[in-house]
Amino acid sequence: MASVAPGTPCWADLATPGLDAARRFYPELFGWTGRVDAEPEAGGYTVFLLGGQAVAGVGPPAVPDQVPIWSTYVATDDADLVAGRVERAGGQVVVPPFEVFDRGRMAVFSDPAGAAFSVWQPMAFAGAEVFDVPGAMSWTELVTPDPDGARIFYELVFGWQPEEEPMGQVAYTGWRLGDRVVAGMMPPLGDEFPADSPAYWTVYFSVADADATAARAAELGGTILVPPRDIPAGRIAALRDPNGALFSLIALTP
Fold first, then answer.
1. Residue 1, C-beta contacts closer than 8 angstroms, at least 6 positions apart
2. Which residues have C-beta within 8 Å of that of residue 84, sequence separation ≥ 6?
3. Do residues 213 and 199 lie in contact, with contact meaning Cβ atoms separated by under 8 Å?
């Protein structure tokens, strides 16, 4: 049932106390529609659709004081096995594996530097159905003050092989799984992300025009954290939504 191979990011969702605001902001920004989960226990969890295909989700926070955050989910065929690997590699099992109705099995972890990430073991729901087109998830990236430790950790957990990627003056790492580079990593950047910033995963959504989308996000009440700029893969920007959740844009180079 998986739409992507195990070890590959397959889904992203937003946990936010501003659920209604998020249901307005992101469809206005990306052209999404929302499908609210009918299960009362889901708390109004909403799957965002692009042209009828699932691209991302949004739901209420797990705990009342949780900051709004986008989470990256990595596909797996055994969430319990990953949990054991995380612990042995020095990470933390934040939420042990559990079943989400008949949709799948998930767990939440943090790496040794504190970056939270999740896994998804699909059952009825495979995750995102489309990638790399405007309005869909295109990339996931770890920003961490401890890239050396992360290289060891994620190789042990997912079998990712770290590869240095050229990106200007930044020491950028791509993680290869088989014949694909499936995710990236970089250190915090100067004043934009202070050196003492906690490690975190960020999600990039593909757009046709990074400048226009960033400007539209600001019009809708978001904040431009890092203005649009060019990298070899395309033109990127980092934003916060009206409730403060960080996410990124990329207009891919053809």
1. 122, 123, 124, 126
2. none
3. no
Beta carbons of 163 and 92 less than 8 angstroms apart: no
145 CB neighbour count, 10 Å cutoff: 17
Predicted confidence band of residue 2 (pLDDT cuts 50, 70, 90): very low
Residue type at position 234? G
What tokens does 121 get? Answer: 């073991």
The separation between CA 171 and the C-alpha centre of its own chain, rounded to angstroms, equals 21
The end-to-end CA distance of the chain, in Å, is: 30
Q: Pinpoint the alpha helices (H) of 89-209.
A: 147-158
Distance, in Å, from the CA atom of 121 to the CA atom of 133, rounded to the nearest integer, reads 24
Q: Which of 199, 32, 13 is nearest to 119 (CA)?
A: 13
| Cα dihedral 205, 209, 214, 219 sign | negative
Q: pLDDT tens-digit profile of 129-155?
A: 999 999 999 999 999 999 999 999 999
Whole-model pTM above 0.90? Answer: yes
In a 10 Å sphere around its CB, with 0-12 CB exposed, 13-18 middle and 19+ buried, how is residue 253 labelled?
A: exposed
Model confidence at 254, pLDDT cuts 50, 70, 90, reads: confident
Instruction: Please say whether the dihedral angle defined by the alpha carbons of residues 188, 193, 196 and 200, taken in this order, is positive or negative.
Output: negative
CA distance 99 to 160: 26
Q: Are the CB atoms for 198 and 187 separated by under 8 Å? A: no
Structure tokens, 56: 């991302």
Q: Which is more confidently placed, 165 or 192?
A: 165
What is the per-residue pLDDT across 172-192, written as a single tens digit (0 to 9) for each? 999 999 999 999 999 887 555
Helix (H) / strand (E) element for 171: namely strand 170-177
What size, in residues, is the chain? 254
